[in-house]
Design a protein that fits this description.
- This protein is of the alpha+beta class.
- The protein has two domains: 167 residues, Ribosomal Protein S5, domain 2, CATH 3.30.230.10; 142 residues, GHMP kinase, C-terminal domain (Alpha-Beta Plaits).
- 37% of the residues lie in helices and 23% in strands.
- The strands form three sheets. Strands 2, 5, 10, 11, 12, 13, 14 and 15 form an eight-stranded antiparallel β-sheet that branches.
- A hairpin with a 2-residue loop joins β7 and β8.
- It starts with a strand and ends in a 5-residue tail after the last strand.
- The model has no long low-confidence stretch (mean pLDDT 96).
- It binds ligand DP6.
- Pfam families: MDD_C (PF18376), MVD-like_N (PF22700).
- It comes from Corallococcus sicarius.
- It is an enzyme of class 4 (lyase).
- This is diphosphomevalonate decarboxylase.
- Belongs to the diphosphomevalonate decarboxylase family.
Length: 328
Amino acid sequence: MKATVRAHPNIALVKYWGKRDDALILPHQSSLSLTLSPIHVTTTVEFGAAADHVELHGHVAKGSERDRVLRLLDAVRVQAGRDLGPAKVVSRGDFPMAAGLASSAAGFAALAVAGRQAAGLPADTRASSILARRGSGSACRSVQGGFCEWLRGEREDGEDSYAVQRFDAGHWPELRMVVAIVDRGEKEVKSRDGMKSAVETSPYYPAWVKDAEAEVPRARDLIAKKDLEGLGELCERNAWRMHSTSLAADPPLCYLSPATLGLIQHLREQRKKGVPVWFTLDAGPNPVLLTDAAHEVAAEALARACGAVDVVRCVPGGDAVLLSEHLF
Ligand code: DP6
């Protein structure tokens, strides 16, 4: 009745931005990401505890944070079809100070896989991805390693909306993602609220959906060919389009800070000098640089020269895995 899983975060190369169903977390469009190592989250789940207890990164979770975890475990209980008793959950991330990447994707992926295992359900990547999605959309892409595509699906019950691995972590081992922390502040508008406002108020939203859906197969082809320049250009254009959609929302939503723009400008100049480095940007000010192993040191130097207070160098990461050592 106890299981422990370690999962990595992922960075979207073609972003997910907007839900067609808020409760089930169903997206308007497909997305594509790369799972990132070495940063990870480890989660232990035990059913049959004395009372429900959720501990995240060293503190006892309360309110909506706790509810999201317990709701996911309720879905596990339904799948198990029996009374599993109260649950104890302990989760810890090794994310360096404000890694600039949310730990929720890795956290919910680890929780979904560990929850099913602790309930005695068989290992099932698709079922785990659907379960993780119900915790946080992007989490469905962290159940597996390498390059994963979240298929938007058509069904109202969401059973065809899950992530599939297109290429494993060994496909492109020279690829690097360098997280540049230019701003440690908490973001003012969470992804969940930001994307909701884009769906409801941005006149550009329908164009975003159409464009992002069309970019996914293009990104897949560029990854198959290991075309760094092509993928870099695609990532930048997709990030700009996601942010433009939100800049056009009412009220407008801008996640970029002056430091973000400074780094992006510098990156363009470096590219003209032959340094192969591109960026992507989630719902926050910290760019993630896309480059290769031969230029990761240059990418880190570039980020620091532009005021990055912390830099995390990542390589393609693997699947969520079961561990034999538990957190409690
Ligand atoms: C910009 O998956 O955190 O990082 O489904 O509401 O929990 P919820 O949102 P979340 O949003 C991620 C948004 C993004 C793009 C992406 O990862 O695809």
